[in-house]
Model the fold of this input.
Amino acid sequence: MYSRKVLKFLEKNKIRLNDKAKIITLDDEIEGILLNRPDYLEDDTLIIKLSNGYNIGINLRNIKSIKVISKTKPVKTINSKDKIPKKPFISILHTGGTIASKVDYRTGGVVSRFSPDELIKMFPDLKNYGGIHSVFLGNMFSDDMRFSHYKKMAEAVKAEISKGSKGVIITHGTDTLGYTSAALSFMLENVPIPVILVGAQRSSDRGSSDAGMNLICAVKFIKKTSFKGVGICMHENNNDEACVILSGVNARKMHTSRRGAFKTINNDLIARVEYEGNGITFLSEHHNKSGKFKAMTGMSDKVGIVKIHTNFSAEQISFFEEKKYKGLIIEGTGLGHAPISETDKLTKEHSRIRKAIKSLIDSGCVVVMCSQAINGRVNMNVYSPGRDLLNMGVVSGDTMISETAFVKLAWLLGNYKKEEAKRLMNENLRGEIKKRLLL
Amino acid sequence: MYSRKVLKFLEKNKIRLNDKAKIITLDDEIEGILLNRPDYLEDDTLIIKLSNGYNIGINLRNIKSIKVISKTKPVKTINSKDKIPKKPFISILHTGGTIASKVDYRTGGVVSRFSPDELIKMFPDLKNYGGIHSVFLGNMFSDDMRFSHYKKMAEAVKAEISKGSKGVIITHGTDTLGYTSAALSFMLENVPIPVILVGAQRSSDRGSSDAGMNLICAVKFIKKTSFKGVGICMHENNNDEACVILSGVNARKMHTSRRGAFKTINNDLIARVEYEGNGITFLSEHHNKSGKFKAMTGMSDKVGIVKIHTNFSAEQISFFEEKKYKGLIIEGTGLGHAPISETDKLTKEHSRIRKAIKSLIDSGCVVVMCSQAINGRVNMNVYSPGRDLLNMGVVSGDTMISETAFVKLAWLLGNYKKEEAKRLMNENLRGEIKKRLLL
Done:
């Protein structure tokens, strides 16, 4: 938030947040939109969003004059709540997150508190893209998502399909968006429409917000595509040229704050959607399955992730046996390794780790190996510790990132018998395992 | 390994592994070095390394003729064991890993079993770069590294320095190389020479191995640099043009198998070292500290990492209190979050998670928040759950990757009192925290 001094200056010059203004400084002339101040910048710096999408800061003492070029337009009300449009319509399911947040000007932090209608009001452009049916599912930060929320979302998607929806958008916080997209990918078997998760890295009431563009690109994509399945629509990079549609499996948030934070791992992008203009480029073939649509929403609660690190201890594995876990993802090192070799007198703990893994598997837990290297394939046949783990019954996570493997294992154990779940872990159900991968 | 049929064909044509050969196929003429066959390719494909660094596969049935252009040269013996060269010398400390591995032709897997002398024999080029003092520390896969091995390495570096070494190379497996480089960065305060860790993604007896080039580039760098500190020398990307020198803090293995797997996170590269020619480009300024060199090798064993995921449970935190951990890295989501808000009736577990974190901190454990997004800064002031965690006493990991934060916390708790350790977590000791970072 700006200081009192800046606010007075803005008031005197009749500039409000999100107005477009011309600023003459000591050595330059700048046009752009006045944004709110991020909390980490010094008080007396105005933040201006330039037409190329970048933001610059200008200190008050360098400003000779400031003048409004155009005011922000008041938005029209669309009252879409519970009224199902008659014409082909798109559904928006709201779950919360930054995309539905605004800045709390008392504390300077971001709070989660837009209603679905308020959000639609903020983006009048959505109207140009057809009827919208808006459904409120929740207003939460995505780190609070639990498996039971996935079930609610899957059922809400099913309900929209039965009402005739042409495509579903789910607004969602970015923190765990990749987990949710993976869960819905597995839960919605043969889904007959596109289901696109949309998040934002900057809250909707900020000029630098990516919320509007991500939403609008998702709508554009749904209107033009024959893709049936679960995807994600987020900024391609840090400018405002295009969004990308990522497959719902193996998408990962790879930056804490940038708008182009989502990357598809060991996988191809589905499409690139230009923001202005109508360009949609399909970047990989999608093979829509034609089987019967079914929502399988079971999830086993007793599944965990453990990350291997140096100086690891056996008790970190035994914990999962004591607590009767049904599934465990080991985020191993490199090609899929864990410290299980007693190579010198300093590595006596490693025999205990080996025994703990064996004992956990013997207790009935399905143990799957992924890699903390993130990119590339797990291949436990190359080195002897990997082969030993395979022989003990550890299942390879192949090209799955650990987050997808975690969700898949919980879903499999929630819907299938253990041996079938174990077998299906290595089968490519939704595009999560790539046969061919560039080394 | 090649099939019997291929081996017969090669024998008939007097071609051995690593010979340079001209191959005439049905529609092409190819020159290159014959490599061994990776296990995942079909049996009857010859693997040829081209002069541009890429490998191609040629099926036997397409080959019209094959002819040797030049044979591999036998290497000369350098007996360097325990003899300290008289002239300026570089030390190589051997710890094992793929760089010191060869393929076991019985099983097809890779085993760790070169002696230091054998390794030096394999790279006669090293001779051109001055005297080498070779020290055997171990022959282990790096996933088996424990804190006590870091202590051994730091002490061995100290011993080499006292003998007059101009620079130390440590050969090391790549799986946990980033953990070790961080540990040595902290342990070796004001180290007066470059200490460069070198690994390989492909074993040394394969034609596609990166072992030789990584080693030679490390030697080149040491001979030309004024850098004092701990770094890593690995392939820049997947061709054989150059290696990069990465800072020892915040380097991460980002691919399971590619040669250019190591990336510096939230940090700049130190230098780029051309393989052929003498080009070294320094990519960031290094500020060598001039204080007294000291090896501080204490490490606290009771430090762990826990990864947050959806459907997380409080018992995964309480475990660390029950087991009396002194430090814990939480690999949170996004800007540094954990599920601690009871937003609806499905999130009752979250109050328990909040209490478990609070109770763990009250028990005396130092809890540090990093992000599973890997890139970008942890900023817990933006959203209310982050601020709540800060208020509970969680320490921000700032720009540190969780692996570096883990090693740093264990090192701080091994050498300082708790309150001092907590304070130093947020101080930039070795370049691990960046004040300025591009958003």
User: Anything to note?
Assistant: The longest strand of chain B covers residues 63-70. Chain B has a mean pLDDT of 87. The CA atoms of residues 44 and 60 of chain B lie 6 Å apart. Residues 147-163 of chain B form the longest helix (17 residues).
